[in-house]
Write a structure and sequence with these properties.
A hairpin with a 2-residue loop joins strand 1 and strand 2 (114-123). The chain folds into 2 domains: 15-70; 101-249, Nucleotidyltransferase, domain 5, CATH 3.30.420. It has helices at residues 18-33, 39-48, 55-65, 141-151, 165-168, 170-178, 195-212, 217-233, 245-249, and strands spanning 101-111, 114-123, 129-135, 158-161, 182-185. Helix 2 crosses helix 3 (55-65). By secondary structure, it is of the alpha/beta class. Strands 3-2-1-4-5 form a 5-stranded mixed beta sheet, with helices on both faces. It is built from 9 helices and 5 strands. Residues 83-252 form the Integrase catalytic domain.
Length: 252
């Protein structure tokens, strides 16, 4: 099954209270608009909408959604147990060709009565989605599966990610090092260091996820597969001189 981690083949959405599901939907939509909001602003925003919630609850829900790591709050994102640390390599760097920089990220995908997590690997120059996977948990395995499938199409000079435990794990780091790929980690609490993947999530959610309200994992898997086919092969990008990501990626 393309795009679905093995552990998720027979997944049924984990029961979540109706109130928490509603709050998570609202948080997801607001985060998509304002990924720079911390838990304090998210809590204030929910209260302005008439939902009397405490910051502790918002933090718990964001952690469940896998979004907590992007907020500038001490110790929110715990790197993997690696002695080695990697700097952010892309500040003021001109991206000049395909496979110069790849990046990855994880996002929360809502279902009618549950949720899953999506990881994707993106080529920065072409905006081409090289691979993606869905999972019911935030473990490292589905991220490694996406990485392996991406590496079958090429090898980047630099691979950029945030400092989540999936991407700082020994298995993930060593897989990149095995192909002599330079590793770049976003600064703590700097969601926009990975701006092109953030834009991909925004496009996916506004153009597909929020419009279709998927009921099951099978439905959302098929929907995401169709969307990424459209995104790669049909969706024109102004920044690419109105070409598609696939057209630009194949010009290498």
């Amino acid at each position: 099954m393309l795009g679905l981690a093995r552990s998720s083949y027979y997944y049924q959405p984990v029961p979540v209270s109706e109130e928490d599901l509603l709050l998570m939907r609202l948080l997801d939509e607001q985060y998509t608009q304002t990924p720079f909001y911390g838990t304090r602003k998210m809590t204030a925003w929910l209260n302005l909408q008439g939902y009397g919630v405490e910051r502790k609850r918002v933090r718990r829900l964001l952690r469940t959604m896998g979004l907590e790591t992007i907020y500038p709050h001490p110790r929110l994102s715990q790197p993997g147990a690696m002695e080695q640390r990697f700097p952010y390599l892309l500040r003021n760097v001109a991206i000049t060709n395909v496979n110069h920089v790849w990046s990855t990220d994880i996002t929360y995908i809502r279902l009618a009565r549950g949720f899953v997590y999506l990881v994707a690997v993106l080529d920065w120059w072409s905006r081409y989605v090289l691979s993606w996977e869905l999972s019911i948990t935030l473990d490292t395995s589905f991220c490694l599966e996406a990485l392996e499938r991406a590496l079958k199409q090429g090898t980047p000079s630099i691979f950029n990610s945030d400092q989540g435990v999936q991407f700082t794990s020994a298995d993930f780091v060593q897989r990149l090092q095995a192909d002599h790929i330079q590793i770049s980690w976003d600064g703590r609490g700097r969601a926009l260091d990975n701006i092109f993947v953030e834009r991909l999530w925004r496009s996916l959610k506004y153009e597909d996820i929020y419009l279709k309200d998927y009921q099951s994992v099978r439905d959302v898997r098929n929907g995401i597969q169709a969307y990424f086919e459209f995104y790669n092969h049909q969706r024109l990008h102004q920044s690419l001189d109105y070409q598609t990501p696939a057209q630009v990626y194949r010009q290498r």
